Amino acid sequence: MWICSRPDLLDAALLRPGRLDRLLFCDFPSQGERLEILRVLSRKLPLASDVDLDAIAHMTEGFSGADLQALLSDAQLEAVHDLLGGESMHEPGKKPVITDALLKSTASRARPSVSEAEKQRLFGIYSQFLDSKRSLAAQSRNAKGKRATLA
Predict the structure, then answer these.
(1) What residues does 26 pair with on adjacent strands?
(2) I need a surface site. Which of 42, 44, 69, 121 has the fewest CB within 10 A?
């Protein structure tokens, strides 16, 4: 099995029948999937008890898993900057904490790495790829049992 996010970049020889056995389309994550991704990625982060990951999942429509990872990293860095620049810096043992307000503020400034126009372009490439695979499969089925010679 091959996984390729850009089937248009594959060599045409790889697209012939019998070469790739499965075609798997992985779309951008839904709100529920983004929530689960955020939960997994934030397990080891210092989140305040007030953090609402469901609200963050709702705010991040169109984000990939990598975009969500970057969002959490940015929020963690912002928490460190807040600690270093604030009064609490002089408190021994004080650690940076990602609060709900800080995470929402970071999310409101973040943008998905793939634009809507680019998504539509990629979906178009995928549709063309599917159409060509269907066409090749039909040609292969029609040719079974027939003799052919190479000239």
Answers:
(1) none
(2) 44
